């Protein structure tokens, strides 16, 4: 077996798109835009999305993201929040008081003068202090998974890595950055990490709190759920940092674990939303060449950062010409390549992040053999809701051409019958 550090590095790289640290360039651009927007534009400020090669699970949006559209994930906040701005089709409400997030397993009491807005890509809270559009600080709260040894044990890291192959958990770590260690009143460890996320000497600070996910008693639980953390990332102006820092640190010390962050007694698993902006996404790596000249294509659903939800839906595997796919207009799909069983659909049903028998995933594996056609091939997974995932970003290995007179075939080799 490869050395553990090598395996950890591979996992952290392969799954960064699912739960990666904030992209410095995007945060810098967003902070500059925030300084220019007016109060009227504040609640539509987060129309900027990371696309293409930009990390899919990064810190997207801002304090005033527009309300999710019909295809977006449903809100996960329960009725312990108070809306201070009427909801509308173009903007979400601002929340004050106590905010409860059962999927992420926490309850947060917002100090006076603070407000929150729900973001859906990925699910997180955006906090602000003071007047909308003039907030002295941007704070984002979400769950993630970490391999940082200052918060996780070697046993847990090893178990998570071994159990994850070949899927691997989405991970992020700031283990290469200095951090101040602390312990909350309830005994949970946390890290305070200073990172120049925006540039220009801004006080950028990340807090990570040990926040393991607990499966229901007696059920199989993936090892990577032990690596979950609750994160607060803060970006502030220098002149206001001294004022907001004590309030932020009180929130870090006092945010309450609930439900799945305690003992797993809360079985809440709301319906999953598939894709980049949802609770789950297709696990990677997408494709793997086999010694006999075939290619394995892995199609399924895995939780983002330990978010619990129930997945029930169909996933369709489509092999298409990459150039034709690039020319296809939005809302349409390119023609299928001449491969037997191409366009096959599989129905998946189960709880995440538990997955099948505690594997952490719900998945099916297809084997593709004998391809003698174009080298420009994309493998796409289409969910029941129409979300399309391009496996390998259009770069997958192709099967060996073994017989030009024989058909190219997709065969299911693993997954639900």
CATH architecture of the largest domain: 3-Layer(aba) Sandwich
Radius of gyration: 22 Å
Low-confidence stretches: 1-88
Q: Which percent range fits the helix content?
A: 10-25%
Task: Assess the beta-strand content as a share of residues.
Answer: 25-35%
Give me the number of helical elements: 5
Name of the CATH superfamily of the largest domain: Mog1/PsbP, alpha/beta/alpha sandwich
CATH topology value of the largest domain: Protein Transport Mog1p, Chain A
Oligomer: single chain
The secondary-structure class comes to: alpha+beta
The CATH class of the largest domain is Alpha Beta
Strand order, largest beta sheet:
4-5-6-10-9-8-7
What is the global morphology? elongated
Distance between the termini: 32 Å
Count of the domains: 2
Tally the beta strands.
20
Give the overall average pLDDT.
75
Largest sheet: 7 strands, antiparallel
Helix/strand order: HHEEEEEEHEEEEHEEEEEHEEEEE
Distinctive features:
elongated, alpha+beta, Protein Transport Mog1p, Chain A, 5 helices, single chain
SSE topology:
Blueprint: H1 4-14, H2 24-36, E1 81-83, E2 95-101, E3 106-109, E4 114-120, E5 123-129, E6 137-145, H3 154-164, E7 179-183, E8 189-194, E9 204-210, E10 228-236, H4 238-254, E11 256-257, E12 280-281, E13 287-289, E14 295-303, E15 309-321, H5 322-327, E16 345-352, E17 361-369, E18 377-383, E19 388-391, E20 409-414
Antiparallel strand pairs: 1-2, 2-3, 3-11, 4-5, 5-6, 6-10, 7-8, 8-9, 9-10, 12-14, 13-14, 14-17, 15-16, 15-18, 17-20, 18-19
Q: Would you mind describing this structure in some detail?
A:
- This protein has helices at residues 4-14, 24-36, 154-164, 238-254, 322-327, and strands at residues 81-83, 95-101, 106-109, 114-120, 123-129, 137-145, 179-183, 189-194, 204-210, 228-236, 256-257, 280-281, 287-289, 295-303, 309-321, 345-352, 361-369, 377-383, 388-391, 409-414.
- The protein has 2 domains: 4-261, 3-Layer(aba) Sandwich (Protein Transport Mog1p, Chain A); 280-414.
- Helix content is 14%, strand content 30%.
- The two termini are 32 Å apart.
- A hairpin with a 4-residue loop joins β2 and β3.
- The chain has 417 residues and is of the alpha+beta class.
- The strands form 4 sheets. A 7-stranded antiparallel β-sheet has the order 4-5-6-10-9-8-7, covered by helices on one side. Strands 12, 13, 14, 17 and 20 form a 5-stranded antiparallel β-sheet that branches. Strands 1-2-3-11 form a 4-stranded antiparallel β-sheet, with no helix packed on it.
- The protein contains 5 helices and 20 strands.
């Amino acid at each position: 077996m490869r050395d553990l550090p090598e395996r950890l590095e591979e996992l952290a790289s392969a799954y960064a798109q699912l739960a990666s640290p904030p992209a410095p360039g995007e945060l810098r651009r967003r902070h500059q835009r925030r300084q220019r927007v007016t109060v009227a534009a504040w609640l539509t400020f987060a129309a900027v999305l990371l696309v293409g090669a930009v990390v899919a699970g990064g810190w997207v949006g801002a304090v005033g993201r527009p309300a999710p559209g019909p295809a977006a994930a449903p809100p996960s906040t329960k009725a312990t929040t108070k809306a201070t701005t009427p909801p509308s089709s173009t903007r979400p409400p601002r929340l004050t008081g106590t905010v409860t997030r059962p999927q992420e397993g926490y309850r947060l009491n917002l100090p006076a003068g603070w407000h929150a807005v729900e973001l859906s890509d990925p699910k997180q809270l955006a906090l602000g202090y003071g007047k909308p559009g003039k907030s002295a600080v941007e704070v984002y709260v979400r769950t993630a998974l970490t391999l940082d040894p200052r918060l996780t044990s070697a046993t847990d890291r090893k178990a998570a890595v071994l159990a994850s192959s070949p899927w691997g958990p989405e991970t992020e770590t700031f283990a290469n950055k200095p951090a101040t260690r602390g312990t909350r009143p309830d005994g949970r460890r946390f890290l305070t990490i200073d990172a120049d996320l925006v540039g220009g000497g801004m006080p950028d600070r990340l807090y990570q709190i040990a926040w393991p996910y607990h499966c229901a008693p007696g059920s199989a639980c993936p090892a990577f759920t032990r690596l979950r953390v609750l994160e607060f990332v803060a970006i502030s102006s220098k002149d206001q940092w001294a004022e907001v820092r004590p309030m932020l640190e009180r929130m870090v010390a006092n945010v309450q674990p609930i439900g799945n962050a305690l003992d797993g007694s809360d079985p809440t698993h709301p319906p999953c939303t598939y894709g980049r902006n949802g609770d789950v996404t297709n696990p990677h790596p997408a494709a793997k060449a086999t010694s006999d000249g075939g290619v394995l294509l892995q199609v399924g659903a895995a939780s983002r950062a330990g978010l619990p939800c129930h997945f029930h839906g169909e996933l369709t595997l489509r092999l298409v010409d990459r150039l034709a796919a690039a020319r296809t207009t939005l809302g349409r799909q390119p023609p299928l390549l001449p491969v037997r069983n191409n366009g096959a659909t599989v129905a998946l049903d189960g709880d995440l992040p538990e997955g099948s028998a505690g594997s952490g995933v719900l998945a099916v594996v297809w084997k593709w053999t004998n391809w003698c056609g174009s080298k420009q091939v994309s493998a796409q997974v289409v969910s029941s809701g129409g979300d399309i995932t391009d496996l390998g970003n259009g770069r997958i290995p192709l099967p060996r051409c073994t017989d030009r007179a024989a058909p190219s075939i997709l065969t299911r080799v693993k997954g639900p019958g």
